[in-house]
């Protein structure tokens, strides 16, 4: 059977368009003004929010990418978990979804079956219904979902709203981009590869569900633009400075070792080039740790900005670490210490 990763140049969320190019295009587009549109891309939120006439809020997102693993079923799981994550980052639950599939003619149809089955199983775990989609022939396989959730007024989280004095909680370890690069180079250990897969197929549903019992001032998920990239978006949207305590950031096994060996994805350097000017990095932080903070994540965790009491209680209950805090607006949006 053809290895899926042999058909791609970049994998997972590392395949995203460089952020500088994306923002150049988005910044040139006119903003859409609609009285029912609660939130769009102007604040870099994870999904759009649209208010229906009866007051119901519709939350919608779309995400797809090329494979980062060779097993088609696992690829389907990861891609679905990643797409579903945007809805969880908004504090909602995914309810309906549609498949997006690009499929090469050189692959057996059983490969497509396994990819779709992996996505279906993750959607079932999330309590969402997949009903239909769209498929085209393409030399590079790609898969993902268009996902919709629903909420009531006041129930939706946004990446805008972090407040001075908040603590920052991260719900997954970093490093899947670097590990996936090591896997593609046949240099990753079985332990590292397994840890990355386990992280990527884990739904953010459970972190979101537990967080509903606490106050969340701002939230986002950590994907292709890295921890620092998505933190920068939260800081700018909230008009504050986020302080990341680098030694408290959870990291998957062997990640720094692989980074030192040069097994960094191209997206890591794209992120640094774009975000670096917005980050005040303490000079003593080792290069490999800096690399991890810029690493593009696939199906990464949620980042919460919560009042101190709530963050500590949530962290104690779930085991998710507190990795920093929020200060008044500083010279740069992000300070890494």
Automatic annotation (TrEMBL):
Cofactor(s) required for function per UniProt = Mg(2+)
Q: Which UniProt keywords apply?
A: ATP-binding, Kinase, Magnesium, Metal-binding, Nucleotide-binding, Selenium, Transferase
An example GO biological process term is: selenocysteine biosynthetic process
Say which domain of life the source belongs to.
Bacteria
Give the positions of the site Important for catalytic activity.
Answer: 16
The answer, when asked if NADP is one of the entry's keywords, is no
Specify which residues bind Mg(2+) according to the UniProt entry for this protein.
46, 86, 221
- List the active-site residues: 13
Query: What does the record's cofactor remark say about binding?
Result: Binds 1 Mg(2+) ion per monomer.
- Could you say which enzyme class this protein belongs to? transferase
**Where is it found, in Gene Ontology cellular component terms?**
cytoplasm
- Which molecular-function annotations from GO does this UniProt entry contain? ATP binding; magnesium ion binding; selenide, water dikinase activity
Q: Which InterPro entries does the UniProt record give?
A: PurM-like_C_dom, PurM-like_C_sf, PurM-like_N, PurM-like_N_sf, SelD_I, SPS/SelD
Q: Does the keyword DNA damage apply?
A: no
The protein's Enzyme Commission number:
2.7.9.3
Q: Taking every annotated instance into account, which residue ranges of this chain make up the domain PurM-like N-terminal?
A: 45-150
| UniProt subunit comment | Homodimer.
The text of the family note is: Belongs to the selenophosphate synthase 1 family. Class I subfamily.
HAMAP family tied to this protein: SelD (MF_00625)
Protein name per the record:
Selenide, water dikinase
Q: Which organism is it from?
A: Sphaerochaeta pleomorpha (strain ATCC BAA-1885 / DSM 22778 / Grapes)
């Amino acid at each position: 059977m053809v290895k899926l990763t042999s058909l791609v140049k970049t994998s997972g969320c590392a395949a995203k368009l460089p952020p500088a190019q994306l923002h150049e295009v988005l910044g040139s587009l006119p903003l859409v003004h609609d009285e029912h549109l609660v939130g769009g891309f102007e604040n870099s939120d994870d999904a759009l929010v649209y208010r229906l006439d009866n007051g119901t809020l519709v939350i919608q997102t779309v995400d797809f990418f090329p494979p980062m693993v060779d097993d088609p079923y696992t690829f389907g799981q990861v891609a679905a978990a990643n797409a579903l994550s945007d809805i969880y980052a908004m504090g909602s639950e995914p309810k309906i979804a549609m498949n997006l599939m690009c499929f090469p003619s050189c692959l057996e149809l059983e490969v497509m079956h396994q990819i779709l089955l992996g996505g279906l199983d993750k959607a079932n775990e999330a309590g969402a219904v997949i009903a239909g989609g769209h498929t085209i022939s393409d030399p590079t396989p790609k898969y993902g979902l268009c996902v919709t959730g629903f909420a009531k007024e006041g129930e939706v989280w946004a990446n805008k709203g972090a407040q001075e004095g908040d603590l920052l909680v991260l719900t997954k370890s970093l490093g899947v981009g670097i590990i996936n690069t090591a896997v593609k180079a046949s240099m990753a250990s079985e332990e590292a590869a397994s840890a990355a897969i386990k992280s990527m197929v884990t739904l953010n549903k459970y972190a979101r569900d537990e967080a509903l019992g606490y106050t969340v001032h701002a939230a986002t998920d950590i994907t292709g633009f890295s921890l620092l990239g998505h933190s920068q978006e939260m800081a700018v949207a909230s008009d504050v400075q986020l302080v990341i305590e680098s030694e408290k950031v959870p990291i998957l096994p062997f990640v720094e070792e692989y980074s030192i060996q040069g097994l960094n994805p191209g997206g890591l350097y794209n992120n640094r080039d774009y975000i670096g000017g917005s980050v005040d990095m303490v000079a003593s932080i080792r290069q490999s740790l800096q690399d991890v903070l810029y690493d593009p994540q696939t199906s990464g965790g949620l980042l919460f900005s919560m009042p101190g009491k709530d963050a500590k209680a949530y962290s104690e209950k779930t085991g998710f670490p507190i990795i920093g805090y929020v200060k008044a607006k500083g010279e740069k949006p992000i300070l890494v210490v």
